[in-house]
Amino acid sequence: MRSFIEYLDGKLNEGRAEIERLSAEGRKDDADFAKVSTNIYEVCKTVSQALISRPGAGVSAIGAKFEHFRASWGAALDKAKQHDDAKAVAVEEIKLAALDDVIAHFQEVKEA
Amino acid sequence: MTRENALKLFKCLSDMSRLRIVQSLTLGEMYTELLAERLELTPSTVSFHMKKLEDAGVVVSRKEQYYTVYSLNRGILEQTVFQVVTSEPDEIDEQQKREEQYRQKVIKAFFDYDKLRSIPVQRKKKLICYERIAERFEIGRVYEEKEVNEIISPIHEDYCTIRRDMISEGIFKREDGRYVRLK
C-alpha cells in the first residue's frame, strides 16, 4: 500500500505543478479543471489512508469505495449530459478520468 | 453591442485557451474533436470553452450529422476595440437586472436541474421556485388534479404541499377539483 500512497503523492505534486503552469499561462478555467483532477487524487489518498487503518476494512473496502465513487460520478455525468450542461460534463469527465487512473494503479498494487 | 455584452466578450477572451481556439477558427470552421486534438485538450473541455465563446457571441455553431461545427462570428470580431469600449449600456433597468440575478441565484441554489432540492422557507424564494414549477403548465388550460400531481411529483416528493401553496399564492385557481394556472 505504501507504493500506492507514493503514487498518489506523485500525482498530487504533478497536479499542483500543472495548476501553477496553467495559471501562469493565463488559462484560469483549465487551471480550475486541473484543481478538480488534483482534488480527486487527494480524496482517494485520504480515503485509502483512513480505510487501511480501520479495523475490518482494508484493501477490499478501498476498492469498494472507489467503485461507489465511479457509480455516483457516472450518474452525475449522465445527468449533466441530459441537461446539456457543458461545465458539469467537463468536471464529471475529469473526475472519472482521474478515478480510472487511480483504480488502474490500485489494481496493479493489489495484484503485485 | 451593449456595454454588458462588451464586458462578457472581454471576460470570455481573457483566457489563453479560448484565444487559441479563436485563432484556430480563423483558419476555417472546425468541430470539437478536431479542436481538442489541435490544442491538446479533452473534447469536454473544448465543449466548455465553446459554450462560453458562443454565449459571448464570438462563435456560432451548426449541427452536421454527429458533429457540432463551429465558426467565428466575424460581425463581432471585426468591430474595433474603440467601438466595443464605447458601447451603450443595456436598456433593461438596473432594478430589473438585479431581480433577475437574484432569481437565477435562488433557482441555482434550490434546483438540481429539474428537481427541487427542498421547499424554501422564505416566502420570496418559495415564490421564485413555484413560478419556475408553474412554467410546466399552460396559462388558462384546465388541469385535473391527477395531471397536476403527475407534473409536480417528479420535481419534488411533497407535491401536495406545493400544489396547495400554489393555490394560496394565486398561481393556480382551483374550481371543482380542477386547476387553472393564472400567472
How can the largest sheet of chain B be summarized?
3 strands, antiparallel
Task: List low-confidence stretches of chain B.
Answer: none
> What's the number of helices of chain A?
4
- CATH fold-level label of chain A: Ferritin
Please describe what this structure looks like.
The complex is a heterodimer of chains A (112) and B (183). With 112 residues, chain A is mainly α. Chain A has one domain: Ferritin, CATH 1.20.1260. In chain A, 88% of the residues lie in helices and 0% in strands. With 183 residues, chain B is an alpha+beta fold. Chain B folds into two domains: 3-85, Arc Repressor Mutant, subunit A (Orthogonal Bundle), CATH 1.10.10.10; 94-181, no CATH class. In chain B, strand 7 (172-175) and strand 8 (178-181) form a beta hairpin. The longest helix of chain B is centred in the middle third of the chain and has 17 residues, at 94-110. The two termini of chain B are 33 Å apart. The model of chain B has no long low-confidence stretch (mean pLDDT 92).
Write a brief caption for the model.
The complex is a heterodimer of chains A (112) and B (183). Chain A has 112 residues and is mainly alpha-helical.
Features:
heterodimer, A: 112 residues, mainly alpha, Ferritin, 4 helices, 88% helix, 0% strand, flat, B: 183 residues, alpha+beta, Arc Repressor Mutant, subunit A, 2 domains, three-stranded antiparallel sheet, 10 helices, 8 strands, 54% helix, elongated
